[in-house]
Amino acid sequence: MLHAATRSLLGLVDAEMAKLESDADFRAGSDPAPHSLLRLQQGSAFGGERMMRTRAAGSVKCSLVFALGLVSLGAGCGPEGEMEPPVVLVAPVERRAVATTFEWPAQLEPARITEVRPRLRGHLAAVHFAGGDRVGVGQLLFTIDDRPYRAALRAAEAQAERARADGPEAEAGDAPDAALLRARLALTWTHVTAPAAGFAAPPRYPVGTGVGPETVLATVADLDPLVATFELGEDERRRLATDLERHGPALQLVAADGGVHRERARRVRLDGERTLRAEFPNPGATLRPGDPVRVRLRAAVGEEALVVPRRALHEGPEGAVARVVAAGGVVETRRVTLGERVGDLVGIAAGLAAGERVVVGGAAGLPDGAAVTPAGLDAD
Asked: Under CATH, to which class is 87-98+303-375 assigned?
């Protein structure tokens, strides 16, 4: 249709040009001037007019041809010269059975803590460690002022000497020797040593403080293993608490920087209705009590979830969004609630339905409602 119209227009231009040329010839041929010079001059004038008409017709023809060429080029853009909708790459929203990752903030504490207490009364004379030091069994930690106990030892030695001088018939019997033994033992107890190996907590009292057997001077913690304590939510308790023995070895510790502790849980027990205590080996004491950690469990609980490629998701002013090719082939933006991340896929808890198509490329700058042509493995 378009090419036939073009040929018709070009035919009209050619006819017009022929008419102009014929008119010029007629005017030149009917000149009544009697003299040759006059005819030459007049013929020249009419010849110039003919040339001008011919050039004008040629310009009109060229302009029409150019315009028609543009129309012909526009004819490939679509019906009535409109551009085809841009192509966007899409992926389907799928429902899959995936493993679920659970994470809980946890409190680290030693599996065993030993208290350091003096065996006698007195005043602290010296502290021989700092908080955080690794200490061994029997290592000196505190010294209690031993002057009263040295005086008591001297008195017991003198009494024992007198008893030996009085002979076996003396009424004192074995009492002096027993008193001497107790005095010697008390003097050794003025040196307070570590009852267990581990890491010492800071001393609780300064030098000069009066202490006794009821006083906890410090604690020594065995950091291998450590216990992570965390709380389950109601839904998590229902889904996981009955399978602790099965899931226990899958528990991991995740540090604040994202690093994963190389040792997995060795024992897990439920303490009450929701509190879990998981024991983790800690060789080399790489973790310390109080370190910010999370307990992670990746478990296949037999449930299906909606998933989309991670690159289909974007961060909007009010949270995560995805762009969807909706009915009618137009793009629209949806707010979504994210679930678990599974490799390059992300679970969708709300906002999308199975079978919908999310845009994974090509829609940058397109407003909602813009028509698009979806392309992808699922695009028909």
From this structure: mainly beta
CATH 3.40.50.300: does it fit domain 101-105+221-299? Answer: no
Question: DSSP character for 249?
Answer: G
Closest CA to 180 of 172, 168, 171: 172
346-352: long-range contacts (C-beta < 8 A, 24 or more apart)? 346/307, 346/308, 346/309, 346/310, 346/313, 347/98, 347/305, 347/306, 347/307, 348/93, 348/305, 348/306, 348/307, 348/308, 348/322, 349/306, 351/322, 352/93, 352/306, 352/308, 352/322, 352/324
> Which pair of tokens denotes residue 87?
């192509």
In CATH, what is the architecture of 114-219? Beta Barrel (2.40)
How far lies 245's CA from each of 227, 248, 250, 267, 368, in Å?
16, 5, 10, 8, 51
pLDDT tens per residue across all 380 residues of the chain: 444 434 443 443 454 444 444 444 434 444 433 333 223 233 333 344 444 444 444 444 444 444 344 333 343 455 555 688 999 999 999 988 777 777 889 999 998 999 999 999 999 999 999 998 999 999 999 999 999 999 999 999 998 888 888 766 555 556 778 899 999 999 999 999 999 999 999 999 999 999 999 999 999 999 899 999 998 877 777 666 555 556 556 788 999 898 999 898 888 887 877 788 889 999 988 888 889 999 988 765 556 789 999 999 998 888 899 999 998 899 999 999 988 777 788 889 899 999 999 999 988 889 999 999 999 855 44
For 147, residues 6+ apart whose C-beta sits below 8 A from its C-beta are none
> Tokens in use for 365?
């700058």
